[in-house]
Amino acid sequence: MIVAKRKPFEEIKNLLKGYRKVLNVGCGTCVAVCLVGGEKEVAVLNAELDMARKLEENPVEMGAITVERQCDMEYLEILDSMVDEYEALLSMACGAGIQFLAERYPAKPVLPAVDTTFLGVNQTVGWYEERCRSCSSCVLGLTGGICPVTMCAKGLYNGPCGGTNKGSCEIDKNQPCAWYQIYERLKAQNRLDCILEITPPSEWQNQIPRTVIQPGYKKQEKK
Amino acid sequence: MRLDYPSNIKIIRVPCTGKVDVMHLLGAIQKGADGVYCVGCMEGACHYNAGNLRARERVMHVQKLLEEVGIEGDRVRMYNLSSGEGPTFAAYAKEMTEHIKKLGPNPLKKWARAKNKE
Ligand code: SF4
Ligand code: SF4
Fold this sequence. Notes:
The complex is a heterodimer.
Chain A: E1 2-6, H1 9-15, E2 21-27, H2 30-33, H3 39-55, E3 61-67, H4 73-76, E4 88-91, H5 95-104, E5 110-112, E6 114-124, E7 127-132, H6 148-151, E8 168-169, E9 172-176, H7 178-188, H8 193-196
Parallel strand pairs in A: 2-3, 2-4, 4-5
Antiparallel strand pairs in A: 1-6, 6-7, 8-9
Chain B: H1 22-30, E1 36-40, H2 51-69, E2 76-80, H3 86-103, H4 109-117
Parallel strand pairs in B: 1-2
């Protein structure tokens, strides 16, 4: 899932400076699961903003709605009849969702309430760890299911580098060397030949926004 | 046991302090309450294992949120006692009341009053 952190309150308050009626739009998928931008977090942030602005004798009216997914136009539709009432929209979705919201309502200021951080896993409630950097050419099949792009400090497709030190990375002895872990796992699986395969460097394809069209679908007119 | 505790305190019963949510505490202050406190079982004695520990974490979180907003975080507190301790309950009620009196009224009170009149 996509993991995000809430922006510092001061920053959000500053973004809203000058607006008196704002709709806070949560997202019920990734950011709700990682406890940063779902229905509950929308309510908490709205309460904070309401109190802070009253203390400044400059109240703001905060609307609240949480859609199923902000990265899907289908779920943004229900906002159509609401947005006109508001001067600006605050979004608690990931960066993708925020942009889709801004794309649907180009005349409205759309402001982010979270910092989108990574693609990760849920270790336990409230604890998330990064696992993938969307490199577009996944090598997990050769690396024993451990991502070197994310877990190796240098993001090496082919490793380890000369800095590997008894299981640790040269940047810090508490930082495990991803390639050491890959080696250990492949050895245990009797697949050490995998580590000898050379993966060509990633093309610069990840420098421009990528598009995926799944087999059986084609690029259609945008709705 | 007939024990007096300050009459300004309104009790809201929950099955376990683990049920107390951030919004319950924050919402009370938002609506003009001068203070809110949770009274849970002794740490280590929760029937649901960690309800009172979660409550403490939420109380601490709300304290931080209030400070960010510009309200004294200490208007929200956590207390623990075991269910047989009536006198301790009354003592905590007194302590909290004294403490809040020192802090003075919730600065949001006038907004809450305006809303009630509407
Ligand atoms: S908008 Fe972002 S957080 Fe919400 S479902 Fe889509 S990807 Fe997940
Ligand atoms: S190699 Fe790593 S960054 Fe690339 S797709 Fe696989 S898991 Fe993600």
